[in-house]
Amino acid sequence: MEKIFNNTQIAFALKSDTELDRAYFLFKLIANQPLVRIGTAVTNFAIKAHLPVEGLIRATVFDHFCGGVNENDCLSVVEKMHTKGVSSVLDYSVEGKEEEDQFDAALKMTLKTIDFAAKKQAIPFAVFKPTGFGRFELYEKLGEGQTLSETEQKEWNRVVERFDTVCKEAHQKNVALLIDGEESWMQDAADELVTNMMRKYNKEKPIVFNTLQMYRHDRLAYLKKIYHLAQTEGFFIGMKVVRGAYMEKENNRAEEKGYPTPICASKEATDINYDAAVDYMLQHLDCMSIFVGTHNENSSYKVMNRIAEWNLDRNDNRIWFGQLYGMSDNISYNLAAYDYNVAKYLPFGPVRDVMPYLIRRAEENTSVAGQTNRELELIKTERNRRKNR
Protein backbone atom coordinates (compact mmCIF):
# COMPACT_ATOMS: atom_id res chain seq x y z
CA MET A 1 0.00 0.00 0.00
CA GLU A 2 1.12 3.55 -0.77
CA LYS A 3 2.75 5.22 2.24
CA ILE A 4 0.72 8.36 2.76
CA PHE A 5 1.70 9.49 6.27
CA ASN A 6 4.91 11.31 5.26
CA ASN A 7 3.05 14.07 3.41
CA THR A 8 3.66 17.01 5.73
CA GLN A 9 2.13 19.57 3.38
CA ILE A 10 -1.28 17.93 3.88
CA ALA A 11 -0.61 17.16 7.56
CA PHE A 12 0.14 20.77 8.54
CA ALA A 13 -1.90 22.68 5.96
CA LEU A 14 -3.96 24.34 8.71
CA LYS A 15 -0.94 25.37 10.81
CA SER A 16 0.65 28.77 10.38
CA ASP A 17 4.43 29.09 10.63
CA THR A 18 4.00 30.42 14.17
CA GLU A 19 1.81 27.47 15.19
CA LEU A 20 4.31 25.07 13.65
CA ASP A 21 7.12 26.70 15.64
CA ARG A 22 5.07 26.41 18.83
CA ALA A 23 4.42 22.71 18.14
CA TYR A 24 8.14 22.13 17.61
CA PHE A 25 8.95 23.92 20.88
CA LEU A 26 6.34 21.92 22.83
CA PHE A 27 7.42 18.52 21.53
CA LYS A 28 11.06 19.42 22.19
CA LEU A 29 10.10 20.08 25.81
CA ILE A 30 8.00 16.90 26.04
CA ALA A 31 10.96 14.87 24.72
CA ASN A 32 12.94 15.91 27.81
CA GLN A 33 11.75 13.85 30.81
CA PRO A 34 13.40 15.96 33.54
CA LEU A 35 11.92 19.13 32.03
CA VAL A 36 8.44 17.58 31.95
CA ARG A 37 8.75 16.63 35.63
CA ILE A 38 9.95 20.11 36.61
CA GLY A 39 7.35 21.82 34.40
CA THR A 40 4.56 19.68 35.84
CA ALA A 41 5.57 20.47 39.42
CA VAL A 42 5.91 24.20 38.74
CA THR A 43 2.57 24.34 36.88
CA ASN A 44 0.75 22.46 39.65
CA PHE A 45 2.24 24.80 42.26
CA ALA A 46 1.34 27.92 40.24
CA ILE A 47 -2.26 26.80 39.79
CA LYS A 48 -2.72 25.80 43.44
CA ALA A 49 -1.15 29.11 44.54
CA HIS A 50 -3.53 30.95 42.15
CA LEU A 51 -0.64 32.63 40.37
CA PRO A 52 -1.59 34.41 37.12
CA VAL A 53 -0.29 31.73 34.74
CA GLU A 54 -3.45 30.92 32.78
CA GLY A 55 -2.56 33.30 29.93
CA LEU A 56 0.82 31.62 29.44
CA ILE A 57 -0.68 28.12 29.64
CA ARG A 58 -3.45 29.10 27.23
CA ALA A 59 -1.00 30.49 24.67
CA THR A 60 1.22 27.40 24.71
CA VAL A 61 0.27 23.89 25.76
CA PHE A 62 -3.49 24.51 26.15
CA ASP A 63 -4.09 25.91 22.66
CA HIS A 64 -1.99 23.16 21.10
CA PHE A 65 -3.83 20.25 22.76
CA CYS A 66 -7.28 21.77 23.48
CA GLY A 67 -10.06 23.33 21.44
CA GLY A 68 -11.11 26.01 23.93
CA VAL A 69 -12.45 26.77 27.38
CA ASN A 70 -16.07 25.97 26.45
CA GLU A 71 -17.98 24.32 23.63
CA ASN A 72 -18.59 27.58 21.73
CA ASP A 73 -14.91 28.41 21.98
CA CYS A 74 -14.19 25.15 20.10
CA LEU A 75 -16.35 25.93 17.09
CA SER A 76 -13.73 27.81 15.08
CA VAL A 77 -11.34 24.84 15.49
CA VAL A 78 -14.11 22.37 14.61
CA GLU A 79 -15.04 24.25 11.45
CA LYS A 80 -11.41 24.80 10.42
CA MET A 81 -10.58 21.08 10.71
CA HIS A 82 -13.73 20.11 8.85
CA THR A 83 -12.61 22.12 5.80
CA LYS A 84 -9.99 19.35 5.42
CA GLY A 85 -12.46 16.53 6.06
CA VAL A 86 -11.47 15.93 9.70
CA SER A 87 -14.37 15.72 12.17
CA SER A 88 -14.33 16.48 15.90
CA VAL A 89 -15.33 14.75 19.13
CA LEU A 90 -15.91 17.43 21.78
CA ASP A 91 -14.34 16.03 24.95
CA TYR A 92 -15.10 17.83 28.22
CA SER A 93 -11.75 17.02 29.82
CA VAL A 94 -12.28 18.04 33.42
CA GLU A 95 -10.92 15.16 35.52
CA GLY A 96 -10.72 14.13 39.16
CA LYS A 97 -14.06 15.51 40.38
CA GLU A 98 -15.76 13.58 43.18
CA GLU A 99 -18.89 15.50 44.19
CA GLU A 100 -22.49 14.96 43.14
CA ASP A 101 -22.92 18.52 41.83
CA GLN A 102 -19.79 18.05 39.70
CA PHE A 103 -21.18 14.80 38.27
CA ASP A 104 -24.42 16.61 37.46
CA ALA A 105 -22.41 19.39 35.78
CA ALA A 106 -20.59 16.78 33.66
CA LEU A 107 -23.96 15.26 32.72
CA LYS A 108 -25.28 18.68 31.70
CA MET A 109 -22.17 19.35 29.60
CA THR A 110 -22.38 15.93 27.91
CA LEU A 111 -26.03 16.56 27.01
CA LYS A 112 -24.97 19.91 25.57
CA THR A 113 -22.29 18.28 23.41
CA ILE A 114 -24.85 15.72 22.16
CA ASP A 115 -27.09 18.60 21.16
CA PHE A 116 -24.12 20.29 19.45
CA ALA A 117 -23.29 17.09 17.60
CA ALA A 118 -26.86 16.60 16.43
CA LYS A 119 -26.77 20.01 14.73
CA LYS A 120 -23.30 19.81 13.17
CA GLN A 121 -22.09 17.36 10.56
CA ALA A 122 -18.54 18.15 11.71
CA ILE A 123 -19.23 16.56 15.15
CA PRO A 124 -20.34 12.94 14.57
CA PHE A 125 -19.71 11.70 18.15
CA ALA A 126 -20.17 12.75 21.76
CA VAL A 127 -18.06 11.32 24.60
CA PHE A 128 -17.79 11.01 28.38
CA LYS A 129 -15.77 9.16 31.03
CA PRO A 130 -17.55 6.82 33.45
CA THR A 131 -15.88 8.53 36.43
CA GLY A 132 -17.25 11.83 35.14
CA PHE A 133 -20.66 10.53 36.27
CA GLY A 134 -19.80 8.81 39.55
CA ARG A 135 -17.13 8.11 42.14
CA PHE A 136 -14.30 5.77 41.19
CA GLU A 137 -14.70 3.83 44.47
CA LEU A 138 -18.27 2.88 43.61
CA TYR A 139 -17.21 1.29 40.33
CA GLU A 140 -14.35 -0.40 42.14
CA LYS A 141 -16.54 -1.88 44.88
CA LEU A 142 -19.08 -3.20 42.38
CA GLY A 143 -16.33 -4.62 40.17
CA GLU A 144 -14.97 -6.52 43.16
CA GLY A 145 -18.41 -7.92 43.94
CA GLN A 146 -18.76 -5.99 47.20
CA THR A 147 -22.19 -5.10 48.55
CA LEU A 148 -22.94 -1.40 48.55
CA SER A 149 -24.38 0.28 51.63
CA GLU A 150 -27.87 1.74 51.34
CA THR A 151 -26.40 5.22 50.80
CA GLU A 152 -23.93 3.93 48.22
CA GLN A 153 -26.70 2.06 46.40
CA LYS A 154 -28.68 5.28 46.08
CA GLU A 155 -25.55 6.99 44.84
CA TRP A 156 -24.99 4.21 42.27
CA ASN A 157 -28.62 4.49 41.14
CA ARG A 158 -27.89 8.13 40.31
CA VAL A 159 -24.83 7.05 38.27
CA VAL A 160 -27.01 4.60 36.31
CA GLU A 161 -29.59 7.33 35.80
CA ARG A 162 -26.94 9.70 34.40
CA PHE A 163 -25.76 7.02 31.98
CA ASP A 164 -29.31 6.32 30.91
CA THR A 165 -30.10 10.01 30.45
CA VAL A 166 -27.19 10.62 28.04
CA CYS A 167 -27.63 7.34 26.15
CA LYS A 168 -31.34 8.03 25.71
CA GLU A 169 -30.58 11.54 24.45
CA ALA A 170 -27.92 10.22 22.05
CA HIS A 171 -30.40 7.62 20.76
CA GLN A 172 -33.17 10.18 20.27
CA LYS A 173 -30.84 12.59 18.46
CA ASN A 174 -29.05 9.84 16.49
CA VAL A 175 -25.59 10.78 17.81
CA ALA A 176 -23.01 8.04 18.41
CA LEU A 177 -21.76 8.17 22.00
CA LEU A 178 -18.23 7.07 22.96
CA ILE A 179 -17.72 5.99 26.57
CA ASP A 180 -14.05 6.05 27.52
CA GLY A 181 -12.18 3.20 29.20
CA GLU A 182 -10.43 3.62 32.55
CA GLU A 183 -8.41 1.57 35.06
CA SER A 184 -9.00 -2.20 35.05
CA TRP A 185 -10.11 -2.38 38.69
CA MET A 186 -13.12 -0.17 38.01
CA GLN A 187 -13.76 -1.24 34.40
CA ASP A 188 -15.83 -4.37 35.12
CA ALA A 189 -18.64 -2.29 36.63
CA ALA A 190 -18.41 0.24 33.80
CA ASP A 191 -18.47 -2.58 31.20
CA GLU A 192 -21.62 -4.05 32.70
CA LEU A 193 -23.32 -0.67 32.75
CA VAL A 194 -22.33 0.15 29.16
CA THR A 195 -23.47 -3.29 27.96
CA ASN A 196 -26.88 -2.64 29.55
CA MET A 197 -27.02 0.67 27.65
CA MET A 198 -26.17 -1.16 24.40
CA ARG A 199 -28.96 -3.65 25.08
CA LYS A 200 -31.37 -0.78 25.47
CA TYR A 201 -30.25 1.74 22.84
CA ASN A 202 -28.38 -0.27 20.18
CA LYS A 203 -31.39 -2.23 18.91
CA GLU A 204 -31.36 -0.69 15.42
CA LYS A 205 -27.70 0.32 15.09
CA PRO A 206 -24.65 1.15 17.25
CA ILE A 207 -25.27 4.34 19.22
CA VAL A 208 -23.50 3.50 22.50
CA PHE A 209 -19.79 2.66 22.16
CA ASN A 210 -17.66 1.08 24.88
CA THR A 211 -13.83 1.29 24.85
CA LEU A 212 -11.38 -1.62 24.65
CA GLN A 213 -7.89 -0.93 25.98
CA MET A 214 -5.87 -3.55 24.14
CA TYR A 215 -2.76 -3.39 26.31
CA ARG A 216 -4.94 -5.60 28.52
CA HIS A 217 -4.41 -9.22 27.45
CA ASP A 218 -8.02 -10.19 28.32
CA ARG A 219 -9.81 -7.70 26.08
CA LEU A 220 -9.95 -9.76 22.89
CA ALA A 221 -11.71 -12.55 24.79
CA TYR A 222 -14.07 -9.94 26.24
CA LEU A 223 -14.85 -8.60 22.75
CA LYS A 224 -15.71 -12.11 21.52
CA LYS A 225 -17.90 -12.70 24.56
CA ILE A 226 -19.82 -9.46 23.94
CA TYR A 227 -20.22 -10.36 20.26
CA HIS A 228 -21.88 -13.69 21.17
CA LEU A 229 -24.06 -11.95 23.75
CA ALA A 230 -25.17 -9.40 21.15
CA GLN A 231 -25.95 -12.17 18.68
CA THR A 232 -28.05 -13.99 21.26
CA GLU A 233 -29.90 -10.93 22.55
CA GLY A 234 -30.17 -8.94 19.31
CA PHE A 235 -28.30 -5.69 19.75
CA PHE A 236 -25.49 -3.92 17.89
CA ILE A 237 -21.99 -3.29 19.25
CA GLY A 238 -20.02 -0.06 19.10
CA MET A 239 -16.39 -0.15 20.24
CA LYS A 240 -13.58 2.32 20.36
CA VAL A 241 -10.34 0.32 20.22
CA VAL A 242 -7.23 1.88 21.77
CA ARG A 243 -3.95 0.60 23.14
CA GLY A 244 -4.46 2.16 26.58
CA ALA A 245 -3.54 5.02 28.87
CA TYR A 246 -2.81 3.67 32.36
CA MET A 247 0.00 1.15 31.91
CA GLU A 248 2.34 2.36 34.63
CA LYS A 249 -0.49 2.66 37.14
CA GLU A 250 -1.79 -0.82 36.21
CA ASN A 251 1.60 -2.50 36.62
CA ASN A 252 2.35 -0.69 39.88
CA ARG A 253 -0.98 -1.66 41.45
CA ALA A 254 -0.64 -5.28 40.37
CA GLU A 255 2.82 -5.47 41.94
CA GLU A 256 1.71 -3.69 45.10
CA LYS A 257 -1.34 -5.92 45.63
CA GLY A 258 0.33 -9.12 44.44
CA TYR A 259 -1.88 -10.13 41.50
CA PRO A 260 -0.83 -10.82 37.88
CA THR A 261 -0.74 -7.65 35.81
CA PRO A 262 -3.56 -7.36 33.28
CA ILE A 263 -1.12 -5.68 30.86
CA CYS A 264 0.40 -7.54 27.90
CA ALA A 265 3.97 -8.73 28.42
CA SER A 266 5.47 -6.50 25.72
CA LYS A 267 4.77 -3.70 23.26
CA GLU A 268 4.79 -6.31 20.49
CA ALA A 269 2.16 -8.39 22.30
CA THR A 270 0.01 -5.27 22.70
CA ASP A 271 0.32 -4.49 18.99
CA ILE A 272 -0.69 -8.05 18.06
CA ASN A 273 -3.64 -7.89 20.48
CA TYR A 274 -4.71 -4.50 19.13
CA ASP A 275 -4.58 -5.53 15.49
CA ALA A 276 -6.43 -8.78 16.24
CA ALA A 277 -9.31 -6.88 17.90
CA VAL A 278 -9.57 -4.48 14.97
CA ASP A 279 -9.52 -7.40 12.49
CA TYR A 280 -12.22 -9.22 14.46
CA MET A 281 -14.47 -6.16 14.39
CA LEU A 282 -13.90 -5.54 10.68
CA GLN A 283 -14.98 -9.13 10.03
CA HIS A 284 -18.26 -8.52 11.91
CA LEU A 285 -19.40 -5.17 10.56
CA ASP A 286 -22.86 -6.63 10.08
CA CYS A 287 -23.41 -6.01 13.79
CA MET A 288 -20.43 -3.87 14.85
CA SER A 289 -19.08 -0.35 14.34
CA ILE A 290 -15.49 0.47 15.18
CA PHE A 291 -13.69 3.65 16.19
CA VAL A 292 -10.00 2.88 15.58
CA GLY A 293 -8.26 5.11 18.12
CA THR A 294 -4.58 5.00 17.21
CA HIS A 295 -1.46 7.10 16.73
CA ASN A 296 0.31 4.07 15.28
CA GLU A 297 1.00 4.33 11.56
CA ASN A 298 1.42 0.57 11.04
CA SER A 299 -1.95 -0.18 12.64
CA SER A 300 -3.55 2.49 10.46
CA TYR A 301 -2.04 0.96 7.32
CA LYS A 302 -3.31 -2.48 8.38
CA VAL A 303 -6.86 -1.16 8.64
CA MET A 304 -6.51 0.55 5.25
CA ASN A 305 -5.26 -2.75 3.77
CA ARG A 306 -8.23 -4.65 5.20
CA ILE A 307 -10.66 -2.09 3.81
CA ALA A 308 -9.08 -2.55 0.36
CA GLU A 309 -8.82 -6.38 0.60
CA TRP A 310 -12.43 -6.80 1.66
CA ASN A 311 -13.79 -4.26 -0.84
CA LEU A 312 -15.21 -1.99 1.83
CA ASP A 313 -15.83 1.68 1.14
CA ARG A 314 -13.17 3.95 2.61
CA ASN A 315 -15.91 6.14 4.06
CA ASP A 316 -18.03 3.25 5.35
CA ASN A 317 -19.77 4.87 8.33
CA ARG A 318 -19.13 1.78 10.48
CA ILE A 319 -15.36 2.47 10.39
CA TRP A 320 -13.80 5.58 11.92
CA PHE A 321 -10.21 6.47 12.66
CA GLY A 322 -9.48 8.73 15.64
CA GLN A 323 -6.53 10.67 17.02
CA LEU A 324 -6.08 13.29 19.73
CA TYR A 325 -6.05 16.96 18.80
CA GLY A 326 -2.50 18.29 18.68
CA MET A 327 -0.98 14.92 17.78
CA SER A 328 -0.48 12.73 14.69
CA ASP A 329 -1.78 15.27 12.20
CA ASN A 330 0.15 13.33 9.56
CA ILE A 331 -2.24 10.40 10.14
CA SER A 332 -5.49 12.37 10.55
CA TYR A 333 -5.25 14.77 7.64
CA ASN A 334 -3.73 12.32 5.18
CA LEU A 335 -6.43 9.75 5.95
CA ALA A 336 -9.09 12.42 5.43
CA ALA A 337 -7.45 13.43 2.13
CA TYR A 338 -7.99 9.83 0.97
CA ASP A 339 -11.68 9.89 2.01
CA TYR A 340 -11.45 7.78 5.18
CA ASN A 341 -13.64 8.77 8.15
CA VAL A 342 -11.47 10.60 10.69
CA ALA A 343 -12.30 12.39 13.94
CA LYS A 344 -10.04 14.23 16.35
CA TYR A 345 -10.74 14.12 20.10
CA LEU A 346 -11.00 17.84 20.91
CA PRO A 347 -10.59 18.42 24.67
CA PHE A 348 -12.09 21.55 26.20
CA GLY A 349 -12.82 23.09 29.59
CA PRO A 350 -11.58 25.85 31.91
CA VAL A 351 -7.77 26.08 31.76
CA ARG A 352 -7.24 25.24 35.43
CA ASP A 353 -9.65 22.31 35.36
CA VAL A 354 -8.13 20.80 32.21
CA MET A 355 -4.55 20.90 33.56
CA PRO A 356 -4.67 17.31 34.97
CA TYR A 357 -5.55 16.12 31.45
CA LEU A 358 -2.75 18.18 29.87
CA ILE A 359 -0.18 16.97 32.41
CA ARG A 360 -1.21 13.34 31.75
CA ARG A 361 -0.88 14.00 28.02
CA ALA A 362 2.65 15.38 28.46
CA GLU A 363 3.69 12.46 30.69
CA GLU A 364 2.29 9.89 28.25
CA ASN A 365 4.15 11.49 25.35
CA THR A 366 7.35 11.53 27.38
CA SER A 367 7.04 7.80 28.03
CA VAL A 368 6.49 7.06 24.32
CA ALA A 369 9.74 8.41 22.94
CA GLY A 370 9.10 7.18 19.40
CA GLN A 371 5.86 9.16 19.17
CA THR A 372 7.48 12.44 20.25
CA ASN A 373 10.48 11.94 17.97
CA ARG A 374 8.16 11.23 15.04
CA GLU A 375 6.24 14.46 15.70
CA LEU A 376 9.51 16.42 15.77
CA GLU A 377 10.78 14.77 12.59
CA LEU A 378 7.57 15.65 10.71
CA ILE A 379 7.51 19.24 11.95
CA LYS A 380 11.17 19.70 10.94
CA THR A 381 10.40 18.30 7.47
CA GLU A 382 7.52 20.72 7.02
CA ARG A 383 9.51 23.72 8.26
CA ASN A 384 12.25 22.89 5.76
CA ARG A 385 9.71 22.41 2.97
CA ARG A 386 8.24 25.85 3.64
CA LYS A 387 11.69 27.48 3.74
CA ASN A 388 12.67 25.96 0.41
CA ARG A 389 9.45 26.49 -1.55
Characterise the protein shown here:
- The chain has 16 helices and eight strands.
- The mean pLDDT is 93.
- The chain has one domain: Alpha-Beta Barrel (TIM Barrel).
- The chain has 389 residues and is an alpha/beta fold.
- An eight-stranded parallel beta barrel has the order 1-2-3-4-5-6-7-8, surrounded by seven helices.
- Strand 4, helix 10 and strand 5 form a beta-alpha-beta unit.
- The radius of gyration is 20 Å and the shape is globular.
Briefly characterize the structure:
The chain has 389 residues and is α/β, with parallel strands linked by helices. It is built from 16 helices and 8 strands. It has one domain (68-353): TIM Barrel, CATH 3.20.20.220.
Layout: helices, strands, pairs:
Layout: H1 8-11, H2 17-30, H3 33-48, H4 54-65, H5 71-82, E1 87-92, H6 100-119, E2 125-128, H7 136-143, H8 150-173, E3 176-179, H9 184-201, E4 208-213, H10 219-233, E5 237-242, H11 247-257, H12 267-282, E6 288-293, H13 297-309, E7 319-324, H14 329-337, E8 342-348, H15 351-367, H16 369-388
Parallel strand pairs: 1-2, 1-8, 2-3, 3-4, 4-5, 5-6, 6-7, 7-8
Helical segment tally? 16
Percent of residues in beta strands?
5-15%
Strand neighbour order, sheet with most strands: 1-2-3-4-5-6-7-8
What's the CATH C level? Alpha Beta
Radius of gyration: 20 Å
CATH topology: TIM Barrel
Oligomer: single chain
Nearest-integer average pLDDT: 93
CATH architecture: Alpha-Beta Barrel
Helix percent band: 55-70%
Largest sheet: 8 strands, parallel, barrel
Unreliable runs, pLDDT <50, ≥5 residues? none
What letter string, H or E per element, gives the SSE order? HHHHHEHEHHEHEHEHHEHEHEHH
Task: Output the structural class.
Answer: alpha/beta
Number of DSSP strand runs: 8
Task: Note the gap between the termini.
Answer: 28 Å
Q: Could you say how many structural domains there are in total?
A: 1
